Amino acid sequence: MTVTGLDALLSDTGRCHGRRIGLMANQSSLTASLEYSWEALAKKGVRIERIFSPEHGIFATEQDQVAVASKPTAGIETLSLYGDSEASLVPDRSLLEGLDLIIFDMQDVGSRYYTYVNTLALTMEAVSGMDIEIMVLDRPNPLGGERVEGPMLESMFRSFVGIFPVPVRHGLTAGELAGLYLEHAKPDLRLTVIQMQGWERRMLYSDTDLPWIPPSPNMPTVETAAVYPGMCLFEGLNVSEGRGSTTPFQISGAPFINPMELADRCRSFGLEGVLFRPTWFRPTFHKFAGEEVGAIWLHVNDPQLFRPFATGVAMTAALHSLYGEHLQFLREVYEFNDTIPAFDLLTGSNHLRTAILEGRDVQDILASWQEEESEFRRRKQAYHLY
Fold first, then answer.
1. Domain 222-373 belongs to what topology?
2. Which pTM was predicted?
3. Structure confidence by residue, pLDDT tens digits, 9-41
4. Which CATH class is domain 5-216?
């Protein structure tokens, strides 16, 4: 069984005693016996001065892009790092003063979009020069640590869904990402990563024997995490990404979709490791709430061959070719950005949206970032801890 960074730290908490500690945590911050990190650390005599909670709140009670209130957790002052403005994403220096250690312990899902590690990056920037150590309690990348997929983030498209200079599927753990960001942004701080034991890069989450605890309200299963790098793209379209269903991101649809037609088109791309099942569903909230929508349900039948980002791109291209008069790339405010379309923020540039609108061949589109993938696959080895 894989031992997480939290459980590894709990075996010897000496480095935390006498420290003034802030803890960045949520409901995924658990020991192998499902004890919350703040409770387990307290039993070891470690004093947590305050907890910082991410998007969705400490118990993942809030939906996406919903401001989270600050309220105590188990008697510990708890401060939200996701409010109603972009400024709320960064801990105020007044909240950091008096601390000399910030511990980060949250489950990431291996996609550049996922905001918890972006909260870590913003915090690394905020503590620069304050003589505060950042300690990352490492956890598995549920997609494994070998494969990478998708284009790199272009700097002008930096946002809360894209801070790290990595592909969409990056193949790094949170601790490795922190090491990469320390070199990239060069914040003035001390970084410590408490490594896992028994984790190897080839491992998927199912190989770890760790229980999956939903780190956010629409990440209920490991299967959700597997498809997320591709299906999160639909957040930038007038297509439901499955919020309001019991299988978000695995199912997606819109009223203008003919499921049989779309499934046939998706199958024609020859994508490996995934089956496309035509169906219908009725979202209970979010896009098209209460409406019956034509949909595709993704079934991953070989996780090692499955390319989630390529699948999401191919499906988007199919939607445009079949339903171009209905499909829209949304331009409403997305994660506090009101100038760049959400799809571009997610993909890290405007190149992919442009290629789809121009009707370029899907295989040519998918091949367009292979050099970036190869270069990052080589470069990321410098940050490997496992």
1. Aspartate Aminotransferase, domain 1 (3.90.1150)
2. 0.96
3. 999 999 999 999 999 999 999 999 999 999 999
4. alpha beta
